[in-house]
Design goal:
- With about 625 residues, the protein is of the alpha/beta class.
- It folds into 3 domains: about 5-55, no CATH class; about 70-320 and about 330-335, Alpha-Beta Complex (Spore Coat Polysaccharide Biosynthesis Protein SpsA, Chain A), CATH 3.90.550; about 360-375 and about 410-415 and about 425-600, Spore Coat Polysaccharide Biosynthesis Protein SpsA, Chain A.
- The protein is built from 21 helices and 23 strands.
- The strands form 4 sheets. Strands 12, 13, 14, 15, 16, 17, 18, 21, 22 and 23 form a 10-stranded mixed beta sheet that branches.
- Mean pLDDT is about 90; it is low at about 1-15, about 20-25 and about 40-60.
Amino acid sequence: MKSKSEENWFIHNGRHLIRMFRLFKPSSISKLIEYIKKNKFNDIKEGIYLIMYEESDSLTVRYPDWFERHKVTQQELEEQKNTSFDYSPKVSILVPTYNTPINFLRQMIESVRNQSYSNWELCIADGSNEKSEVRKVLQEYVNSDSRIVVTYLDDNYGISGNTNKALELATGELIGLLDHDDFVEPNLLYEVVKRFQDEEVDVVYTDEDKVLAPKWKHVDPNFKPDFSIDLLRSHNYITHFFTVRKSIIDRVGNFRSECNGSQDYDLIFRCTEVARKIEHVAKILYHWRMTEGSTAANPRSKMYCYEAGKKAIDDHLLRVGIEGNVEIMGLWGMYHTTYKIQGSPKISIIIPNKDHIEDLDRCIRSIENKSTYRNFEFVIVENNSEDENTFKYYENISSEFDNIKLVKWNGEFNYSAINNFGVKNCDGEVLLLLNNDTELITPTALEEMLGIALRKDVGCVGAKLLYADNTVQHAGVVVGFGGYAGHVFNGMGDDNLGYMARLQINCNYSAVTAACLMTRRAIYDLVGGLDEQFVVACNDVDYCLKTRANGLNVVYNAFSKWYHYESKSRGSDEEGAKKLRFEQEKEKFRSKWPDILRDGDPLYNINFPFTEGAFKVERE
């Protein structure tokens, strides 16, 4: 018979257990059941995470071999040691230690000592017992390497206070953050300092992975995008290794004790808010150790960290003058940030239509009947319909609802021109380009998108679109797939996490689909609307890239859900004249946007090959 604590744990975590079982292979389920039967209750959590990271994801299973093939070579390290940068700043690495296991402590320190870039100092603030083995080991290193400096604390000032004590030791121009039981690759500082050769760069962060006990296997690689503010407001994707100019910390202040548990998250927000330029090194250079009880291996072990993370986001929004609301999600360490809508701006919902009145009616009524946001108009752009019942429907629906406007496009079919025509005939200050074969699911879908679209830093917002079978049709677009662009997570279940939970949280992409795309009218006019040289394809991706070229963000909203009844078996313009036209438009796109196709999508990651689909490491 289970104890009360056991029952509470299973009640609290039942949903996550079910999701894990859905992801596991049959053999892994058997392993999990066997583990639970053979072990005590306190070990069940560890077993779940062990199997989850080792077995549940094909990416993770083959990642250790991938990592070995892609790590820096000895020859490269020798070349780096002989490289002379024009700018060779001292990097002060801050480490608060507290009763650190000696083998972990030594590995952490040796990983710094083995750096190919030599101008560093390791600033350690130790809060361990004065008679502990930790202090003996630290003194040993202090005596053998002048670049290692230690302050022995007479009290425990908390994680923020202890880190601030380490910061007091720093004499370098750059500050880096390292946890006491983690370790780094020998080319870490070389790659970081290389980015600081650009004098405008104030912040640099790298990719990272985790090493899993007891065999210390490399798992769970975090291949990050370039700076993504909406992803950062959803969770601390930057984490390690974070480096910032000391002058920035002097400006924004030290670590804050009120954010203990997420003190790095809070500092990252404050530094990135004022940074002139933020650089990302797309290499796995930091290894986060997963031990029993650590936040990495067992997120429930430190729930206070997530409350502190919420405060970090709340305070960030206050500093940047944005009214928002932050909720802790059921996914550990993930947050749902929404934005207050000032006033009640009108949304003009632009829907091109040729016949297909059943689709159109379902679309309109889903919004009319479900949406909690009410200030909108429908602008139906009639596009050469042939069925007389279509025009009868227009009369009926217009008499039923007083917010429907019908405008007629008499030219040849051109998706871009049709939408541009609809925009010219609308009244709203916010536009929603919407396909007629969509259906609103979440009542707050318009508000979710609108709050983001009204932000001054945003160009357009996309939604989560599902097929009729509740698998994903759209959750963001990566530029480069197939020499053009492709949807991420296509075909996954709605409740699937996706890579790094990206399917379930708001984040930035280079593009979203115009099947459901919200943008301000002022932005639409600024960039010239949809480019009419793209008659059928490429116009939405092109529009998003035009907004990004004007310094604006493109946001995927995971909480604005719609059905998009586009046929999964229809294909993508793969036959005859349609295929030829599609190829011609892709060629126009490639000519217009050569840089991103050459250099890679900055909101993806170069470690994911474009031949394998979204968020997959190359195959063996």
